[in-house]
Design goal:
The longest helix is centred in the last third of the chain and has 18 residues. The protein is α+β, with helices and mostly antiparallel strands. The chain is 32% helix and 37% strand. It is built from two helices and four strands; from the N terminus they run αββββα. A four-stranded antiparallel sheet has the order 1-2-3-4. A hairpin with a 2-residue loop joins strand 2 and strand 3.
Length: 81
């Protein structure tokens, strides 16, 4: 998966967590020295998670794998608040 693919596919990703439906918005991926930094907001909340991926993790991941990672992050944060 490329950075552009992840940004395009993740914007609008819906996540069901703790009785709510949440939406990933404004996904940005930036190259970092040791991989990629992913930033996004969860629409309608104050949540703005950041995730760091190792250098080869994004390139070797499928959309299903990355969507599972994003859903896990959003659900975990949403259910803590």
């Amino acid at each position: 998966m490329t950075i552009e693919q992840l940004e395009t596919l993740a914007d609008g990703l819906t996540v069901s967590a703790c009785g709510r439906t949440l939406v990933v918005d404004r996904m940005r991926v930036r190259a970092a020295k040791s991989g990629h930094d992913i930033h996004f907001i969860v629409a309608g909340t104050d949540l703005a998670p950041r995730v760091h991926l190792a250098a080869n993790q994004l390139a070797s991941s499928s959309w299903e794998q990355m969507s599972n990672v994003l859903r896990h992050v959003v659900a975990r944060l949403a259910c803590q608040n």
